[in-house]
Design brief:
Strand order of the largest sheet of chain A: 1-2
Shape of chain B: globular
Order of helices and strands of chain A: HHHHEEHHHHH
Helix content of chain A: over 70%
Oligomer: heterodimer
Largest sheet of chain A: 2 strands, antiparallel
Radius of gyration of chain B: 21 Å
CATH architecture of chain B: 3-Layer(aba) Sandwich
Structural class of chain B: alpha/beta
Number of strands of chain A: 2
Structural class of chain A: mainly alpha
Radius of gyration of chain A: 23 Å
CATH topology of chain B: Rossmann fold
C-alpha cells in the first residue's frame, strides 16, 4: 500500500522544484500534446531526450521513474496482445501455425508504448517536483479565466487540495482496517470468491463510514475557522514567474511547434 | 510457553527514502497468564511491537515466538491463521472496524472466519457480548447507531468471541469517559483472573497500569528500556524517572508526604493502604 510511487512528491532542491507550478503545468500540457502529434520516431527521440535531461536536472532517480511505470506494464502487455491479434497489415513477420504476426502490429504497439512511457515520465516529473498544495494553487490560477463563466474555480481548487491532502490519511486508514480485519481472520490474499467479497466488504464499509465522519468533522473545523463557501478570499502564498519559468514555457512550446512542423513537412 | 522476542528489528518501507527503523534489537520475554502493560512515548514502537504477535508485521531481523509458533525474519510463515485465532488483537479505536448490519453478526464474524458454524458462531458471539456487558436488546441493532463506548465494546466482543488465549489491546480506553474506561480495564483484569487469558495492554494511563496490571514493559525509541513487575516499577522513583512518566496520583501524594518529613513505606500503592497507614500513625 505504501509503495505507490505514481504521483508522489519527492522533496529535493532543484531547478524544477523551484519553478512556479503554473509554468510546469503549462509546460507539461505542451509536451503532452506534442507526444500525441504523430511526428515519427525522430520526434519521439527528441522529446525523450528532453524529458530525460529534465529528469536529470530535477535530480530524480531513474529507478523512481521506472517504478512509476510498473502499474502500466499490464496495460502495455494487453495492448500488445490485442494489436498482434487484430492488425493484419504490412509485411508478415513470423508465422506460427495458421497465425501470422505482421510488422504493423509491432510498430503500432511500439508507438503506443513509447507514447505511454513518455506521458508517464512527464507527469511523474511534474508530480515529483511539485508539492500538492502548490499544484492546486497553480491549477486554481490557471482556471481563473473560467471564473468569468461562473465556474467556481476556488471551490474546485479547494476540493482538489482536500482530496490530495487526504490520500495519505486514507491509505493509513485502509492499512489499519485491513490489519484489524486480518486479526479477525479475514484473508485478503487467498480464498474463494464469496470469501473475497466478504473480505472486501469488511474493508469498504468501515472506510465509507470513516470517510463520511471525517468529511463532517472537517466541514465543522473549517467553518469554526471562518471558512465561508463562495466568500472572497486572499492568499497567504502568491505565485510569481521568474526567468526560469519563461524559459520552461518557451522551450516546451517550441518543442510543440517543432513537432507540428515535423509532422506537416517531413511526412 | 511464553511470548519471546529475540534480537528483533523491524523497519518500515525498507530500501526507500522513507525507511524507518521502528524496533531495534528487541529482546523480550512476556510471561503467560499475567496482565502486562506496554508503555512508552508516542512513536516508541508499542503498536509495532504488538503487531508482531499475530504476524500482522514480520520481523526484518530476529525471531518472535508466540505459544507454539516461531516466526523468523525473512521466512514465509504458513500457520498465520492458527496464530491469529489464538492471539486476539484489538486495535486502537477499534470501533472503526465494525461493518455488519447487526451487532450479533459483526461479533460472529471472527469465529466464522476461523471455521465455526453459523450456530456455534452466534453462540460464541452471544457469550462474548454478555461478557462485555451488552444484553440481547443490542443483538439486532446496527453497530453504527450505537454510542462510542458501546461500539468499542462490540469491537472487543468481536475479538473475544474468537476465544483467544492471548488478548492484546492497543489503547483500549482511549477516548472513553473515566467510568467507561475503568469498566473496560476491570473487564480485562477479570478475563485474566477468571479465564486465565494472557493480557497485554498498550496504554498511556499510569493509574490503569497501577490498578490493573502485573508487569510493565517500557519502550523508548524502538528499544526495551526496562521490564519489571508493576510493584517494583512504582516503588522506585528512579525507574519512573528513567521511563519519563508522570507517576500515578498515589505515588505523587506519597512523594509529597515524604518531602514533608513523613516516612511512608514504599510498598504502599493503594489509597486504602495509605489511609490505613496514616490513621495508624495518627494513633501513635
Amino acid at each position: 500500500m505504501k509503495n505507490v510511487t505514481l504521483g508522489r512528491y519527492i522533496p529535493l532542491d532543484s531547478f524544477f522544484h523551484r519553478l512556479d507550478p503554473r509554468s510546469k503545468i503549462i509546460g507539461m500540457f505542451a509536451i503532452l500534446i506534442a507526444v500525441f502529434i504523430p511526428s515519427g520516431w525522430i520526434g519521439y527521440a527528441i522529446i525523450g531526450a528532453v524529458i530525460l535531461s529534465c529528469i536529470f536536472i530535477a535530480k530524480l532517480q531513474i529507478d523512481f521513474v521506472i517504478k512509476a511505470m510498473k502499474p502500466m506494464l499490464m496495460m502495455m502487455v494487453f495492448l500488445f496482445v490485442i494489436n498482434v491479434l487484430v492488425i493484419k497489415t504490412g509485411e508478415p513477420l513470423i508465422t506460427i501455425g495458421k497465425f501470422t504476426v505482421y510488422l504493423d502490429a509491432i510498430t503500432q504497439t511500439a508507438y503506443i508504448v513509447v507514447r505511454l512511457v513518455l506521458m508517464i515520465m512527464i507527469t511523474t516529473l511534474l508530480t515529483a517536483t511539485t508539492k500538492p498544495m502548490d499544484m492546486t494553487l497553480g491549477i486554481e490560477d490557471l482556471l481563473m479565466p473560467l471564473e468569468k463563466l461562473k465556474v467556481p474555480t476556488h471551490d474546485i481548487a479547494m476540493m482538489i487540495s482536500l482530496a490530495l491532502r487526504f490520500i495519505p490519511t486514507l491509505i493509513d486508514e485502509a492499512d489499519r482496517i485491513l490489519k484489524a480485519q486480518a486479526s479477525r481472520g479475514v484473508d485478503f490474499e487467498n480464498g474463494k470468491l464469496g470469501e473475497k467479497i466478504t473480505a472486501i466488504v469488511s474493508l469498504i464499509v468501515p472506510m465509507f463510514v470513516s470517510c463520511f465522519q471525517r468529511a463532517d468533522d472537517l466541514a465543522d473545523a473549517m467553518e469554526a475557522r471562518g471558512y465561508v463557501v463562495g466568500a472572497k478570499r486572499i492568499r497567504y502564498k502568491t505565485l510569481k514567474f521568474h526567468a526560469g519559468d519563461y524559459v520552461v514555457i518557451i522551450v516546451s512550446n517550441l518543442i510543440l511547434v517543432g513537432m507540428i512542423l515535423l509532422w506537416v513537412y517531413v511526412k | 510457553m511464553s511470548i519471546r522476542f529475540e534480537k528483533v528489528d523491524f523497519e518500515y518501507s525498507p530500501n526507500t527514502p522513507f525507511a524507518h527503523l521502528a524496533l531495534k534489537d528487541v529482546d523480550l520475554e512476556i510471561p503467560m497468564g499475567k496482565v502486562t502493560a506496554i508503555i512508552g512515548a508516542t512513536g516508541s514502537g508499542k503498536t509495532t511491537l504488538v503487531q508482531h504477535l499475530n504476524a500482522l508485521l514480520m520481523p526484518t531481523k530476529g525471531t518472535v515466538e508466540v505459544l507454539d509458533h516461531r516466526i523468523e525474519a525473512g521466512k514465509k510463515y504458513a500457520r498465520i491463521k492458527d496464530l491469529r485465532h489464538k492471539v486476539g488483537l484489538v486495535f486502537q479505536f477499534s470501533e472503526y472496524q465494525l461493518f455488519e448490519e447487526t451487532v450479533l453478526k459483526d461479533v460472529a464474524f471472527g469465529p466464522k472466519n476461523f471455521g465455526a458454524s453459523e450456530e456455534e458462531a452466534n453462540e460464541k458471539a452471544k457469550r462474548a457480548l454478555t461478557t462485555v456487558g451488552l444484553d440481547e436488546h443490542y443483538y439486532e441493532r446496527s453497530p453504527l447507531e450505537l454510542s462510542g463506548g458501546q461500539k468499542r465494546r462490540t469491537a472487543i466482543a468481536g475479538i473475544l468471541a474468537m476465544g483467544p488465549e492471548i488478548l492484546i489491546l492497543d489503547e483500549p480506553a482511549a477516548g472513553l469517559d473515566p467510568q467507561g474506561a475503568a469498566q473496560m480495564m476491570s473487564l480485562f483484569r477479570r478475563l485474566n483472573t477468571e479465564k486465565g487469558i494472557t493480557v497485554l495492554i498498550v496504554t498511556h494511563n499510569m493509574e490503569h497500569v497501577l490498578e490493573y496490571c502485573d508487569e510493565v514493559v517500557v519502550l523508548d525509541e524502538g528499544q526495551v528500556l526496562m521490564h519489571t513487575d508493576m510493584k517494583t516499577f512504582f516503588e522506585n522513583e528512579e525507574y519512573m524517572e528513567r521511563a519519563n512518566i508522570n507517576p500515578p496520583a498515589i505515588v505523587r501524594f506519597k512523594a509529597l508526604l515524604r518531602s514533608r518529613g513523613l516516612d511512608v513505606p514504599s510498598d504502599i500503592l493503594s489509597i486504602e493502604d495509605l489511609a490505613g497507614f496514616l490513621s495508624r500513625r495518627k494513633k501513635k
